[in-house]
Design brief:
This protein is an alpha/beta fold and 363 residues long. The protein has helices at 25-42, 62-78, 93-99, 144-156, 181-184, 269-279, 298-302, 322-326, 331-342, 345-362, and strands spanning 2-6, 14-15, 22-23, 46-49, 81-84, 104-107, 111-117, 120-127, 164-170, 172-173, 190-191, 202-206, 212-216, 219-222, 239-244, 247-252, 258-263, 285-290, 307-312.
């Protein structure tokens, strides 16, 4: 049995809307073509897409929907294809689920699908993304984590005769190493690795954009997204998973490369430009972190075509023995020292002039 697992396509994604909006469609199409060719080359028996095929959940464009249905149709010609609804996916996918072509299964609610493939019968159990339950009249909320964990256990103990049993879902599992523990505490549905029984042969997950193997008995795997969606992912490899005879391998995709350049410790603008121009050939899209003293150069930096985001970091006050550093100085001298570190050029001259005027008034 050979299965291809992918997720988090985010068709229709436009990144960095606040600063320099960038349409990522071309990159997504490039990745989808690579996955499609991989499916054909590998001669897979089943394709599982674990949610977030679209990016705009409320009002996806006609172009996005056309791209989606084109590729789902192409994948289903290679092998039976199961798509599980994610949190970004348009509710209109429900209508497509009724008119899907043969060998395309769009799952919008928990269900069991029995699919005959070239290598045997597969039982696919689906758990689409579940939104937070409304509060009960007494103000309490239903514990959806327990409900979903219970549903997964029911699926695991289903007595159907099948050659392979697979769970496909779009949800969060704790301790992935991607989400900080403080954030995990506020996620309304988050499962534990022990919720996935060894009665499954494989658990295909979407939602986390990094490729992560949660456990290996059974394999519980996030395939990750297919491009670097944002700068938080700039160090992540992107690809899809091939499962063959209960062994998995990650097929890496070629994609545009994001980079984060941290200049927050640099106060010399010429030095920043020099380092930027040295690194600019390594990346396709760049985020810069700069010191607050260089914040007035933010617009200049954004003129570079590849620079998509410039963040101004908070003041980096050195935590040295400040008593020794400022010993013997009065308030004005300390503040002047601070201005000398934080500003430069005409801004520094103007600030020092204002400081002198204030000192004169106090005197």
């Amino acid at each position: 049995m050979k299965i291809l697992h992918t997720a988090d396509w985010h068709i229709g994604l436009k990144s960095w809307k606040v600063e320099k909006e960038t349409d990522r469609t071309e990159e997504i199409l490039n990745s989808l073509e690579q996955i499609l060719e991989g499916a054909k080359k590998e001669n897979v028996d089943l394709i599982v897409v674990a949610g977030d095929v679209l990016h705009e959940s409320r009002n996806p464009s006609a172009e996005s929907l056309n791209i989606l249905m084109k590729y789902l149709s192409e994948f289903s010609k290679v092998a039976p294809t199961v798509v599980v609804m994610g949190n970004h996916d348009w509710k209109g996918l429900m209508s497509y689920s009724h008119i899907a072509p043969r060998d395309l299964y769009i799952s919008v609610r928990p269900e069991k699908l029995v699919i005959d493939t070239n290598s045997g019968r597969v039982a696919v159990y689906t758990v689409p993304f579940v939104r937070e339950a409304p509060a009960e009249p007494d103000g309490k909320r239903i514990n959806l984590t327990d409900r979903i964990a219970g549903l997964i256990q029911e699926f695991a103990h289903d007595d159907i005769s099948a050659d392979f049993r697979l769970l496909a879902s779009h949800l969060m599992v704790e301790k992935t190493g991607v989400i900080p523990p403080s954030v995990e505490e506020n996620i309304h549905v988050i499962l534990k690795s022990e919720h996935f029984s060894a009665l499954f042969d494989y658990v295909a997950l979407g939602h986390v954009h990094r490729h992560v193997i949660i456990k290996d008995v059974p394999y519980v795997v996030y395939s990750g997204s297919i491009i670097q969606d944002d700068f938080s992912e700039w160090k992540d490899r992107k690809g899809y998973v091939i499962l063959e005879d209960k062994n998995i391998r990650f097929a890496e995709l070629s994609h545009r490369k994001l980079g984060v350049l941290d200049f927050s410790g640099e106060r010399d603008f010429k030095a920043v430009i020099g380092k930027l121009e040295q690194a600019i050939h390594e990346f396709d899209y760049i985020k810069l972190k700069i010191n607050h003293s260089l914040s007035h150069y933010r617009g200049t930096l954004l003129r570079y075509d590849k620079v998509k985001s410039v963040s101004v970091e908070s003041y980096d006050i050195d935590r040295v023995d400040m008593r020794k550093e400022f010993e013997g100085l009065d308030f004005y001298e300390i503040f002047e020292e601070y201005l000398q570190k934080q500003l430069s050029g005409e801004f520094l001259k103007e600030a020092l002039k204002i400081l002198e005027e204030i000192k004169g008034e106090d005197a």
